[in-house]
């Protein structure tokens, strides 16, 4: 995997977790915050850490912010700073701006001012927890957009020893099966005659409502 360069603005709980994971994956991460103590802490796990006011376009220019593959605005407490930073990043021509929203109204504002991706960490965690509590099959979810996702689920008992033709996953539910994880093996783009086995993990793509129906099956 090619190393990428990211900047994370806002070193709170979400920003810290993101910085650590991106760094662990081998990417270069610049951590930015106005709080000197947070910046000093981030020196231990980020590639670089800088104290800066990200509402100042000259400061961001000095940091070469346009050269990063993506900039994540993870500022959580100060909504004004979050929004103004997003505006400045877009005006500077950053390739991809990903902004964290506190609520739906905040998210709408971020979308209006041009954020490429708006994320709702608290909401998404709550939804994921709720689904895992009510569905014994549900394992993991990756949100591609507000409406579409990729999920991992254990094969429903209804599917065991049946193939894709018999199940009719796309016809009946509108869901596309991307892969099957069977132990240490991964079957990518399984053919129509591939049988599902108990213990298989299905990786499926589709509309969230359709995926919910799939994860609710026994």
Features:
single chain, 218 residues, alpha/beta, Rossmann fold, Alpha-Beta Plaits, 6-stranded parallel beta sheet, 5-stranded antiparallel beta sheet, 9 helices, 36% helix
How would you summarize what this structure contains?
With 218 residues, the chain is of the alpha/beta class. Helices cover 36% and strands 26% of the residues.
Task: Characterise the protein shown here.
The protein is α/β, with parallel strands linked by helices. It has two domains: 5-119, 3-Layer(aba) Sandwich (Rossmann fold), CATH 3.40.50.720; 124-216, Regulator of K+ conductance, C-terminal domain (Alpha-Beta Plaits, 2-Layer Sandwich), CATH 3.30.70. The chain contains nine helices and eleven strands. The protein has helices at 13-24, 36-42, 57-62, 79-91, 104-112, 121-134, 164-167, 169-173, 208-216, and strands at residues 5-9, 28-33, 48-51, 70-73, 97-100, 117-119, 138-143, 148-154, 176-182, 185-188, 201-207. A hairpin with a 4-residue loop joins strand 7 (138-143) and strand 8 (148-154). The protein is elongated and about 60 Å long.
């Amino acid at each position: 995997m090619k190393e990428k360069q990211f900047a994370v603005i806002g070193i709170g709980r979400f920003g810290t977790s993101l910085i650590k994971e991106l760094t662990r994956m081998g990417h270069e991460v610049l951590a930015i915050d106005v709080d000197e103590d947070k910046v000093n802490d981030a020196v231990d796990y980020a590639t670089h850490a800088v104290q800066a006011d990200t509402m100042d376009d000259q400061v961001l220019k000095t940091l070469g912010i346009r050269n990063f593959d993506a900039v994540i605005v993870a500022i959580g407490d100060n909504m004004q700073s979050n929004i103004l930073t997003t505006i400045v990043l877009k005006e500077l021509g950053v390739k991809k701006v990903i902004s964290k929203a506190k609520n739906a109204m905040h998210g709408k504002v971020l979308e209006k001012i041009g954020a490429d991706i708006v994320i709702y960490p608290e909401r998404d965690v709550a939804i994921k927890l709720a689904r895992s509590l009510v569905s014994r099959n549900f394992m993991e979810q990756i949100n591609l957009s507000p409406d579409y996702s990729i999920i991992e689920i254990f094969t429903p008992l209804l599917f065991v020893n049946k193939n894709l033709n018999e199940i009719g996953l796309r016809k009946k539910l509108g869901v596309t099966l991307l892969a099957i994880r069977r132990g240490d093996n991964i079957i990518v783009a399984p053919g129509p005659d591939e049988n599902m086995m108990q213990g298989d993990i299905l990786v499926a793509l589709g509309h969230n409502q359709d995926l919910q129906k799939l994860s609710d099956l026994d």
